[in-house]
C-alpha cells in the first residue's frame, strides 16, 4: 500500500481516527507476542483511552543499564508480593546487591493539541515511592543522556496525566517532527505504508527504557483506508480475551 493513501506526504501529524486504527494493529501484534500492551478505556468510552504497558525494572539508581522484565497487569500484584518477600526492607533482588526493583508504567495517548501521540510514564520503587525527575533522568541509558545533555529537563518533564489527573512524566513532543518527518518522507518516496505508532514508539520508547521488538516493524502495517475502528477493536478483543479483561483496542 502506498504511503500517500495512509498519511499525507511529509506530514508528521495524524488524526485521532488514524491513531486509534494504528493502535489497534499494534495491539493485535502485541497480543500475538504476549507483549503486555492493553487498551485502557476512560469513563467507559473506548474512543477515549490509551495504550498501557507495565514493566518491572531491577535496576540501580545509576547510569548502569538495567535488565527488564515485562509484567502482565493480571499477575503483576502476585509478582510484586513475591519480590517484596525476597527483601521487604531494601527492595533488592537476591544476589544483586544494591539493585532496586522499579516499576515503570507506560501510557500512549493521543494529543489533540499537537496531533501526535505522546508517551506518558511513571516510575516507582517496589514499596510505592515515586521516583523524582532527577532519579528518572539517572536511569536514562548513558547513550541517550549524551544526546540529550543540552536540555534534559525539556525532554522529560512532569505533567498531569490528561485523563487520570495524576502526576506523570512525559517525553515532550517538541522533537517529534524532527525524527518523524524523514521517516515518513522516505516511506512515501518508496510508496510504503507506515504504522505511525510503531515508528514513533521505536524511537522514543528506548529513551526511558521501553523497548519495541523488531517484529512490530516487520509485521504491523499502516491502517487500511476505509477500515473502521470498530473492526480493528473486534479483532484485537478476540485475540486478547482469554488473557486479559482490559479492552484491547479502541473503537
Main sheet?
Answer: 8 strands, antiparallel
Looking at the chains present, what oligomeric state does this protein adopt? single chain
> Total helix count?
9
SS elements, strand count: 8
Mean pLDDT: 76
What's the short story on this structure?
The chain is of the alpha+beta class. It has helices at residues 16-33, 76-86, 133-138, 142-148, 152-155, 176-189, 196-204, 214-219, 229-240; strands spanning 38-42, 45-59, 69-70, 92-93, 96-111, 116-125, 156-160, 167-171.
Tell me what you see in this structure.
This protein has 251 residues and is of the alpha+beta class. It is 35% helix and 24% strand. The protein is built from nine helices and eight strands. The protein has helices at 16-33, 76-86, 133-138, 142-148, 152-155, 176-189, 196-204, 214-219, 229-240, and strands at residues 38-42, 45-59, 69-70, 92-93, 96-111, 116-125, 156-160, 167-171. Strands 1, 2, 3, 4, 5, 6, 7 and 8 form an eight-stranded antiparallel beta sheet that branches. Helix 1 (16-33) runs parallel beside helix 9. It starts with 15 loop residues before the first helix and ends in an 11-residue tail after the last helix. The model is unreliable at 1-8, 63-69, 71-98 and 231-248 (pLDDT under 50).
Amino acid at each position: 500500500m502506498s504511503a500517500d493513501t495512509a498519511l499525507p506526504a511529509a506530514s508528521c501529524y495524524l488524526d485521532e481516527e488514524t491513531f486509534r486504527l494504528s493502535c489497534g494493529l499494534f495491539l493485535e501484534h502485541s497480543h500475538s507476542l504476549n507483549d503486555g500492551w492493553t487498551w485502557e478505556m476512560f469513563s467507559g468510552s473506548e474512543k477515549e483511552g490509551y495504550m498501557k504497558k507495565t514493566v518491572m525494572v531491577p535496576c540501580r539508581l545509576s547510569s548502569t543499564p538495567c535488565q527488564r522484565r515485562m509484567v502482565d497487569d493480571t499477575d503483576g500484584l502476585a509478582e510484586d508480593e513475591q519480590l517484596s518477600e525476597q527483601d521487604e526492607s531494601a527492595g533488592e533482588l537476591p544476589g544483586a546487591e544494591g539493585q532496586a526493583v522499579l516499576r515503570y508504567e507506560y501510557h500512549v495517548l493521543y494529543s489533540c493539541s499537537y496531533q501526535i501521540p505522546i508517551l506518558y510514564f511513571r516510575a516507582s520503587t517496589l514499596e510505592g515511592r515515586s521516583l523524582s525527575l532527577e532519579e528518572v533522568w539517572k536511569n536514562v541509558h548513558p547513550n541517550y543522556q549524551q544526546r540529550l545533555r543540552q536540555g534534559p529537563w525539556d525532554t522529560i518533564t512532569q505533567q498531569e496525566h490528561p485523563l487520570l489527573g495524576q502526576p506523570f512524566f512525559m517525553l515532550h513532543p517538541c522533537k517529534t517532527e524532527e525524527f518523524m518527518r524523514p521517516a515518513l518522507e522516505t516511506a512515501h518516496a518508496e510508496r510504503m505504508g507506515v504504522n505511525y505508532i510503531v515508528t514513533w514508539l521505536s524511537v522514543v520508547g528506548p529513551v526511558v527504557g521501553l523497548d519495541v521488538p523488531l517484529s512490530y516493524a516487520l509485521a504491523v502495517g499502516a491502517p487500511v483506508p476505509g477500515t473502521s475502528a470498530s473492526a480493528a477493536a473486534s479483532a484485537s478483543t478476540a485475540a486478547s480475551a482469554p488473557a486479559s479483561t482490559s479492552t484491547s483496542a479502541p473503537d
